[in-house]
Amino acid sequence: MSESYWIETVPLKRRFPPLEGSRQAEFAVVGGGIAGLAAAYFLSKAGKKVLLIEQNTLASGDTGYTTAFISHFLDSTTATLKAWPAGEEALKLFQEVVEIEKIDCEFRLLDAIYFTLQAGNLRADFEALKKIEPGLKFLESREASELSKFKVEGALYIKNEAQFHIRKFLLALADIIVKNGGAIFEDTEVLEITRDGKIFLAHGEIQAGKVLITTGIAPVQFPEINKLLTPYFTYVIAADFKDPRPFGDYLFWDDEEPYHYFRWVSPSKIILGGEDRLMKGPRPGASPHENLKKFLEELVGRAAVLTHTWQGSIFMTK
Question: Do 165 and 59 contact (CB within 8 A), yes or no?
Fold first, then answer.
């Protein structure tokens, strides 16, 4: 497995020192991925005394292995119906932060095509979703295929989704947190977190008024949180195509089980994710990355040059 596209283009290195000795903070954030850095940013922006610790380097965990979609659409229509207004607000807020802070992270608004390869699918999804999003369109096979540039049986056309370079965004956010008076420490291992806000470290300790735990899996002192999570592996490839592009400039995902999702990251390179499986489930017989490459080539009818393969984790909640 090669490195993720995001980490190859913005390499891993320590940018902040480890924490040693004793510290106090109004807010302590444990975890330096997108959740932790976003929380620390908004707290520092509000004038709070915030300290963030990361056991490795910033944006090096699952955040560094994402596909960096910003989407209203969740993994099911039922979930999407519940979260659509929140998704709209989140996307607007994301765009505001990028613009106000002048962050160069390849952020761009982009429409999405949610497609099916099976005739008759997605109709029920469209009928349910158009009640909360009147601008949603159902595309019949011909129109959907013309936009996609590959053969599909139908699609939902979703306006104003977005994409970005996640490590460029988060490392810029880290610098802003420090400028706002916050403190960040990398290579800082947490040994224990108590309910009264004390954090014991390998080489020090923190006393905080409030502790925000923004790790993928919660520390062992909080087993009730992990009982709410179902962990999955998810797999990603990056591939190059020579001109002409074999599909349109959109965010894409399908309704297969497991589903696939892909987008451009440069004029000739796409990233495609999918093949999700339960961490505790059986190991796949074939390589998930090879399956992704095969799916892509069969979809567009052209060979792809594989450049990156990686995997990440998804923690599904109830």
Answer: no
